[in-house]
Amino acid sequence: MRHFDSMEILNELLKFQSITPDDDGAFNYISMILNDFEEINIDKNGVKNVIFRKTFGPGVHICFAGHIDVVKPGIGWDSDPFDPLQKDGFIYARGAQDMKSAVASMICAVSGVQNFNGTISLLLTSDEEGDAVFGTREALKFLQSRGELPDFAVVGEPTCETVFGDTIKVGRRGSINGILRINGIQGHVAYPNKCVNPVHILASKFANFAGHDFDNGNDFFEPSKLVVVDIRGGMQVCNVTPSDVSVMFNVRNSNLTDANDIKNFINDLYKDCDFDLNLKVSSNPFLTDKNSKIVQKLSQSVQKISGVCPVFTTGGGTSDARYFAEFNVDVAEFGVINDRLHAVNERVSVNEVQKLTEIYKDLIENF
Question: Record's PROSITE patterns?
Answer without folding.
Answer: ARGE_DAPE_CPG2_2 (PS00759)
